[in-house]
Amino acid sequence: MNEKFTLTGGARIGTANASYPLADLYVDKEVLKINASIVGNLIFQPKDIISIEEYHSIPIIGNGIKINHRIEKYNPKVIFWTFKNPATVINEIKKTGFLENTNSEISTEDLKILERQNQGGFPIKKPVVVIFVVLWNLLFLLDIIPFFLQDKPEGFPIGIGMNIAIGLAFLSSILLLISEKFRSLILKEGREFDDIKKFAYLLAFVSGMMFVQFTIMNL
After folding, report:
1. What residues contact residue 49 under an 8 Å CB cut-off, 6+ apart?
2. C-alpha to C-alpha distances, 179 to 24, 136, 141, 167, 195, nearest whole angstrom
3. Same domain for 200 and 141?
4. Residue 168 belongs to domain spanning
């Protein structure tokens, strides 16, 4: 029996998708975790699982395993994408003893898992998301509205508003990487930096490149 099984891949939770290598699968005898960054951080106990089955969509790039579960707060569609043979992945999960673990004793760790499950899979506080989306759209509108009000619009509606929006995203990603206080403002209680680490690095890289490019265009 293997003590644990880990695998890097992608994930789909509902309609949201995290491509390879933005998702991680972790399984031991007690828990199965899927960390797909802001797409969702899911944790299951053996009793939460109805079945784990092979899932095939597109050959090679669209193969994975489908987690059928009982957690009401999680989206019912949970798929972990992998380049490995799905049957092999399921067999590795079985080797950990997770699917055969019928221990019904409730421990302190079980209560922590239940609390996290009740929060849902999304790791970021909803008010934070609402504020960011509203501010982001307002900044973009600062450029888009004046552009289309011109008699003969030319070029692209990229100006100071969009640059500030991209800069805000870049600054947020950097603060996520270096500031524990900022993370506590952004993340739900009990969530950790590892839950969004890959997203934070990706956001820092993409927004940083865009910020430099937009700044040069506006000079």
Report:
1. 32, 67, 68, 69, 70, 99
2. 24, 22, 30, 17, 15
3. yes
4. 126-218
